[in-house]
Amino acid sequence: QTGNMATETVCVFCNKPSKYKCPGCETKTCSLPCYKQHKEVSKCSGKRKRSSFAQSVNELNDNTILQGCFFVLIGSLS
Q1: How far is CA 12 from CA 2, 7, 18, 51, 75, in A?
Q2: Taken in order 11, 17, 20, 26, is the CA torsion positive or negative?
Q3: Could you tell me which residues are beta bridge partners of residue 28?
Q4: Which contiguous run of DSSP H or E holds residue 77?
Q5: What is the DSSP letter of 3?
Q6: Are 69 and 53 in contact (CB under 8 A)?
Q7: CA distance 78 to 38
Q8: What's the confidence (pLDDT) of residue 8?
Q9: Does the reported pTM lie above 0.85?
Q10: Residue, of 73 and 9, whose pLDDT is higher
Q11: Tens digit of each residue's pLDDT (9 = 90 or more) over 17-57
């Protein structure tokens, strides 16, 4: 099995394969320490913009649909 690092997404801080994406700005990180470093360095809140939405049907995918469901659920609990 050979990995192609050129096509893999890597952490912006340590270049290890990324596992996570910041909900606020979609920066790729591999761990909680790298995520915390990202928030400190970039002053990112880490919170998804509530006003973000798919601009077209082509942008819809499982992730954007789930984000919409969570948005509705959180709104109904407030």
Answers
A1: 22, 14, 8, 26, 33
A2: positive
A3: 21
A4: helix 62-77
A5: -
A6: no
A7: 30
A8: 61
A9: no
A10: 9
A11: 999 999 888 899 999 999 999 999 999 998 877 666 667 77
Helix (H, G, I), strand (E, B) or coil at 10: strand
- Residue 20 and residue 33: Cα distance in Å, rounded? 12
Three-state SS for 18-63 is CCEECCCCCCEECCHHHHHHHHHHHCCCCCCCCCCCCCCHHHCCHH
Q: 């928030």: which residue's tokens?
A: 39
The separation between the first and the last C-alpha atoms of the chain, rounded to the nearest angstrom, is: 49
Element holding 17 (H helix, E strand): none
Token pair of 43 as six digits: 């002053």
In this predicted structure, what is the pLDDT of residue 65?
77
